[in-house]
Amino acid sequence: MKILLTTLNSKYIHSNLALKYLYAVCEDYHEDLYLKEFTINNDNDYIYGELIRDGYDIICFSCYIWNIERTLSLVDDLKKAKPNLIIILGGPEVSYQVYDLIVNNKGIDYILTGEGEENFPLLLEAISQNNMEKIKTIEGLIYRHDGGIYTNAEASPVDFESVPFPYKSLVSEVDKIIYYESSRGCPFSCSYCLSAADRGVRVLPLDRVKQDLSY
Asked: Among residues 31, 91, 107, 189, which is most buried (max CB within 10 A)?
């Protein structure tokens, strides 16, 4: 089972921290797990060619406001070319009001809402085992099955301190911004920002932050 984590970043110098976290928590799949980042400056024909050429069984897209329309177009093209390809979407742009999104975009098999570090490995395990009973228990998951669309329980916040440092298993990227998270959530409630939907602020212990940054 060949799995790709991918996204379209808004600039070449940007990198996607969320995908690096998912890669870090999926050590059991590293032999078959790949990470490839594009930018919105790459045209869809180029990205499509890269994704089709390498013969992935599962493609997982990290979705944001700047890439969602392009991502949905790619999903449609990929599914037409390879109907058995499994497509998973995650990220802030698909974590709210997701039912209409999956109804209107038939190429999407799964949408994983909320934080994915605990639930994404469970989803890969359930898919690899073709275990529908496990899929039904995964929090934050919306999925297709036998012509229907199903919504599981809302995802709980992860234990942030248990999430591994995301850069140990990856080669450093030249000429790109390195992102690091020492906290999650926001103390404010701005109506225009998705961060207002988070429940409180969680911070890493200072010793953990020092250890990570000294890597």
From this structure: 91
